[in-house]
Amino acid sequence: MKKHESVGLVGLCMGALCLTANAQSTQTSGGTTIVTPPPAPNYNYYSFTPHAYVGADLGGEVTMDTKVNEFFGPIGPTKVRFDPGVRIGFVGGYQLSDWFSVEGQTGVYLNQIDSIDGASFNDNSFVEQVPLLANVRLQLPTHGNCPLTPYIGGGLGGSISLVDFHDVNLNGVEGSDSAASLVFAYQAFAGLRYSITKNIDIGVEYHYFVTTGSDWKFDTFDTQTDHVKFAGTQTHAASVAVNFRF
Q: Most buried residue, 10, 112, 156, 237, by CB count within 10 Å?
């Protein structure tokens, strides 16, 4: 019986020694015992700092056909068609959290007029939109573990709508002139960006941009009215973007 008790005591002592060895190591030097504490656990913490950013993008766009509601007087059902155009965008914003940003955006959508029902005109006739939008952007937090970041967003505001006619002949009126008006506009967008350095991202973006109808006033004489009115426009754009974080 004493033999079994001795074996049990030895086992308990060995277990205690193993636990102690895992918790700390001891060394004896010149009769002095040196106790080395166990290494501290290695924790990886992610920290986000709010920051400002600026960016630009360049790409192509397609503006859908729309209606001509007035051309220096009442007009029958008339449609205007646009050639594929160019989008240039500029953005400045502030990222408040790892998933939410607010930003302001401007740029230009430029389209050459392809045709207007019943009209003849010079090929150098254009419609431009200069958006002035306040956006929110939502992005997927990656906590620094992945260089790819998908995001979506939307914006509201206005757009400076410009038209530049050259030798247009429609509805009994012929002439060349340009005008501008301010219209309501909104957009939705989505993108995917890749971090190439700590401060620089490159990526691709899609924008769906919508405006209400434009009402341009011209200096005319011998016409029923001095207004040209187009219905609202819808534009689909794809572009390559670059962003710089401060």
A: 237
Q: For the domain that residue 188 is a member of, what is the CATH number?
A: 2.40.160.20
What pTM was computed for the model? 0.80
Cα 124 from chain centroid (whole Å):
31
User: Which residues constitute the domain of residue 30?
Assistant: 2-36
Quick: pLDDT tens for 80-89. Answer: 999 999 999 9
Query: Do residue 25 and residue 107 come from a single domain?
Result: no
Q: Does residue 41 lie within any of the structural domains?
A: no
Interatomic CA distance for residues 73 and 84, integer angstroms = 29
Q: If we measure between CA atoms, which residue out of 234, 206, 225 comes closest to residue 60?
A: 206
Rounded to whole angstroms, the Cα distance separating 161 from 198 reads 38
CA angle 52, 238, 128 (to 5 degrees): 90
pLDDT bracket for residue 57 (50, 70, 90): very high
